[in-house]
Amino acid sequence: MSGQAAPGRDEFARFETLTTRWSDNDVYGHMNNAVHYRLFDTAVNGFLIGQGLLDIKAGDQVFLVVETGCRYFSEMAFPDVIHAGLSVAHLGNSSVSYRIGLFANDAARAAAVGQFVHVNVDRQTRRPVAISGRVREALEALMPDQQG
Amino acid sequence: MSGQAAPGRDEFARFETLTTRWSDNDVYGHMNNAVHYRLFDTAVNGFLIGQGLLDIKAGDQVFLVVETGCRYFSEMAFPDVIHAGLSVAHLGNSSVSYRIGLFANDAARAAAVGQFVHVNVDRQTRRPVAISGRVREALEALMPDQQG
Amino acid sequence: MSGQAAPGRDEFARFETLTTRWSDNDVYGHMNNAVHYRLFDTAVNGFLIGQGLLDIKAGDQVFLVVETGCRYFSEMAFPDVIHAGLSVAHLGNSSVSYRIGLFANDAARAAAVGQFVHVNVDRQTRRPVAISGRVREALEALMPDQQG
Amino acid sequence: MSGQAAPGRDEFARFETLTTRWSDNDVYGHMNNAVHYRLFDTAVNGFLIGQGLLDIKAGDQVFLVVETGCRYFSEMAFPDVIHAGLSVAHLGNSSVSYRIGLFANDAARAAAVGQFVHVNVDRQTRRPVAISGRVREALEALMPDQQG
Fold this sequence. Notes:
4 copies of one chain form a homotetramer. Chain A has 148 residues and is of the alpha+beta class. The first copy, chain A, has helices at residues 35-50, 133-140, and strands spanning 14-19, 61-72, 81-91, 95-104, 112-122.
């Protein structure tokens, strides 16, 4: 990725530890580019569920993904253990943009950095709803401004 | 994605037909956001292999993914049949940026649009190599300028 | 698989055509063994949905998987097109055991044969419920005895 | 699974800890039946690689899967952490049959039990080769007879 250095761990507010799988490696012997996205929504939803902020089965509101992206700096591969760093890059009225760094084992620099944009919607109508209360507080706590 | 219309089929140079799978649907009953990326590299590599431009096992050069992205306009779900439209948005010396539209069944507008950036590298050294010859010609033929 | 020949297409009652994906190939350059199971439940549920026998979102009853198995006779790989043959090997009161053959492209012999056992349950209680009516009729029509 | 109790942890020789992913959950809100197989070959190959017994890229011999199977006793779901118990049920001249139990979080009984049969083959010819030396010793150490 010309012109842009891979970020370090200090750029992320919290981490989830994720194991890789044999089938993550494609024919080139490295983690297939789509697997990174499986790790992104695992990190984001793992955070939300762990904080008691998302009730998959019964909640009135759910988050839907409207945009994602990834830059790949270096290869990862099974059996690497991945540390997914999570921060909130932007928090709008009903949407939140996460920034996620994937670090292999004890690497100081991310092997990949993702963007993951969630919109909070009503489960039935799927219309946007403002992010408020405990959810907003938890997301604000992941913003870089809030970490120091 | 507010402020940007989903593209139509005429914005893509060629199409691959891809079937969906039961496991593509996540707990929300729609195609999980990471599945789109599995369809993107299936469309791109299916094109390259079908044209005889990529020899996975024995080629001296391979394409590595350096950046991907996706905007999600509407939901798709198993058992939809997906028509993946493929064009080349930018062709550099050693890199190519594909634009891919995913159309569900007979929909006129894409449910999602992806960006997929490949760099041509030497299989052993993984250093960039110029895209030339038949490969470059085939990619040029997918550029909008070249379509008439 | 010593001592057992791969079955031919005439052993299956109906077929679903399924496309493969780039990420199906693992580091050995062939379809990973777990992908076969993604194709099995795609074939079974594709049949049920196509026949109007399964309403994923609103049905009172759903099928849960209680046992699966696969024998691998030969390798398949992206970009093969797979023809999944489907038959009912056993139909009990509340359970059905499917036999599924995966044929690559125009191969006469299956590359793999799977067993897939579904139990019909109440969506809420997840207790077994008798398979009856149109569903039973459709499954009976897939039993070898019924095919002529 | 009528007539057969789910095994306990003492029936397995060693354990691998595996994290689940958001996309493991299908529309029924539980781990899709095919994911179990991704965990099986992750546990088996993770063991082999961890012991220095498998060199994916450069080894003269590789293991190919010839038969797999799974019985599902209870549901698992993201974000469960899975403890995969591994034992060798049968060790032949060139083949090995693993028995794998998947335990969710701190459950005493397995949620699923799998069979996974590997044949040791020459990487080039893909013909069976005897399992010998350090590999055989490591596999023998996973046989129930050898554990106590």
